[in-house]
């Protein structure tokens, strides 16, 4: 039986053992070349046109920039500084400095030096208290209290027995429950019907009816056999209505305008 794969000379084609580059299709080397448009990755061997940006103007934050020639330079300013022309101001004349004047004999008062040289009696003033003394908050005589003499809280004397009218305390009394155990009243009485024979019980509720159909049925007086005309003959009857023609249009009262 001949093989399905043809021979090419002395070599027979077969499937590769692993993936090779020839099995995958690629666009070729056209994408490896640098582009001719844009700014980034432009081909350096080709001509590049000038590029202008549309960005906004940023404010200069440097304080060293000068305002330029828009300010008027005064006429008395030269490249060497101010010119030597005398200028007069409208200020007042400054006061001339005075020399130190020593006090004369009439500036002293020796009659007032008696308190400093000789002994004098104490003198008290009636002036108000200065504000500097307000920071010294020392207690006065009225800040202290003498120990009481009457009552149970005496210090220097013996106190008589006193009796209080307070309520009886639960702690330490004769009826204090130290074990915290429940008493006889803490238990509920057991119903005798639980452990003895239970007698019959009767309720006071209303009478219960068996469920049934609640539809109202007609009675004998509801029917009128004298008005039956289906099973027997009926005398002719005439109405007193008007005969209307089939070709008369009906009367339309409400007409929409």
Describe the overall structure.
With 257 residues, the chain is largely without helices or strands. The chain has helices spanning 114-117, 192-195; strands spanning 77-78, 81-82. Pfam families: SHIPPO-rpt (PF07004).
Which key terms come to mind for this protein?
257 residues; little secondary structure; two-stranded antiparallel sheet; 2 helices; 2 strands; CIMAP
Binned strand content: under 5%
Taking pLDDT < 50 over at least 5 consecutive residues as the criterion, the unreliable ranges are none
Main sheet record: 2 strands, antiparallel
The total count of strands amounts to 2
**Tally of individual helices:** 2
Q: What separation lies between the terminal Cα atoms?
A: 102 Å
Q: Tell me the helix content.
A: under 10%
Structural Rg: 67 Å
CA-based shape: extended
Spell out the helices and strands N to C.
EEHH
Average of per-residue pLDDT values: 76
Pairing-aware structural class of the strands and helices? little secondary structure
Task: Please list the strands of the largest sheet in the order they lie side by side.
Answer: 1-2
Topology:
Layout (H helix, E strand, L loop, with lengths): L76 E2 L2 E2 L31 H4 L74 H4 L62
What's the gist of this structure?
The protein is largely without helices or strands and 257 residues long.
